[in-house]
Amino acid sequence: MLLEIIAASLEDVRDLNRTGADRIELCGEMDKDGLTPEYDLIREAVQESEIPVNVMIRPHDDAFSYTDREIGQMIEDINFVKKSGANGIVLGVITDEHVVDTASLKKLVDAAGDMEITFHKAFDEIEDQIAALEVLSQYPQIRTVLTSGGAGSSADNTEQLKKLVSRGKELGITVMPGGGINMGNVSEIVDTAAPDAIHFGTGVREDGSFGSRVLGEKIAELKDIL
């Protein structure tokens, strides 16, 4: 199973390379649930990391719908990430009606080229998630959907995650549970949903916050569970 963990600093990137994560989601401003990182951090993280780095592309935390100008900024950021040599990007665009914004998504996907794309937890605001998954599967670069299965944490939505994982496998897209996962509930989520990938944020940190270090012993324990 692929284990993806959030890094919010270069120190996190170094820790995750030492402790054996399979992939890094690189984010800035975790107090806003993760925005596009500073360019210097992107450059240094990709240069130092021996494991794949996927970079968050999110210009603000106001909503997951964006103006043309904001889409333009996201394309500029994607171009920088691509030049940096990162493995992929993480993004999500929905309309004010809470469906996938296919017009904006196509522009972003085209800018990404061959990079892998994860559609992030904007997905949790979509009511018909199975239909959304089918829309996203039409874009070959979108290989992963990060979701809690709806409002609340992944532990609140295990049955929905199970349905999404199953349909995702049929469509050739990986549904990766993430959001509110910790050492106490990960076994239930894995046993119920049977995912091929899982996403951790604060659940592997010393005091459960992004202000503390990633703990190698927690990741070792997690790998035993997975």
TrEMBL record:
It is found in: Cytoplasm. Signal peptide: none annotated. One of its GO terms (molecular function) is copper ion binding. Keywords: Cytoplasm. Its main location: cytoplasm. GO terms for cellular component: cytoplasm. It comes from the Bacteria. HAMAP family: CutC. Belongs to the CutC family. This is PF03932 family protein CutC.
